[in-house]
Write a structure and sequence with these properties.
2 domains, about 20% strand, 5-stranded parallel sheet, alpha/beta, Alpha/beta knot, transferase, tRNA (guanine(37)-N1)-methyltransferase activity, about 30% helix, Trp Operon Repressor, Chain A, cytoplasm
């Protein structure tokens, strides 16, 4: 998988890809992540990428020309399955979206900044718009890192235990059940006996029942 991330501040995103699972995925050649500074396609000697909105109003807007030039250049080099704009008014990211994107080959993530991007960029290029929650960030960079992490970890071979991703919260519209490890008893709190029984059928039933119980308590909307 190749992900190209377009940003005003690409340096803000470099650290998460240099550690842990994301680093491992790239070292194994399972994922490539390339950062593109939109100022490389800026206008004039002042490297302008934003301007005041037509019709008035507060804030600045990312201009169409630098964004169009950048995206068009990338599209001329390869076919992209999705060109994704990270924006608060996009579809809220969930596990279903992450699963779907994980089987794609080439993706572009466009990080919004300021008050957003010229609508014509969305009309010309954007195929999907994603939000990571109902709140506003300074820019789309942190959202792009979240989206990349949620997708890359699902690629075959990235996790040491590939079954792990299949049992994550939300994979079956359920939250995860309680989990325990050694010691068996700590400060008067004990591991449920069923988990020590060796009866794996009964354990699976218990885990499922606990997942349903927790989901009903905390996220009943997932069961609708």
């Amino acid at each position: 998988m190749r992900i190209d991330i377009i940003s005003v501040l690409p340096e803000l995103m470099e650290s998460p890809f240099k550690t842990s699972i994301l680093k491992r995925a790239m070292e194994k050649g399972l994922a490539e992540v390339h950062f593109h500074n939109i100022r490389d396609w800026s206008i004039g000697k002042h490297r302008q990428i934003d301007d005041e909105p037509y019709g008035g109003g507060a804030g600045m807007i990312m201009m169409i020309e630098p964004l169009d030039k950048c995206i068009s250049e990338l599209k001329s080099q390869r076919d992209y399955d999705e060109i994704i704009y990270l924006t608060p008014d996009g579809e809220t990211l969930n596990q279903r979206i992450a699963n779907t994107l994980s089987i794609k080959k080439n993706l572009i993530f466009l990080c919004g900044h300021y008050k957003g991007i010229d609508q014509r960029v969305r009309d010309l290029h954007i195929t999907k718009e994603i939000s990571i929650g109902d709140y506003v960030l300074t820019g789309g960079e942190l959202a792009a890192c979240v989206l990349a992490d949620s997708v890359i970890r699902l690629l075959p071979g990235v996790l040491n235990d590939e079954q792990s991703a299949l049992t994550d919260s939300f994979q079956d519209n359920l939250l995860s059940p309680p989990i325990y490890t050694r010691p068996e008893t700590y400060k008067g709190l004990s591991v449920p006996k069923i988990l020590l029984s060796g009866n794996f059928g009964a354990i699976e039933d218990w885990l499922h029942d606990e997942a349903v119980r927790i989901t009903k308590e905390r996220r009943p909307d997932l069961l609708e």
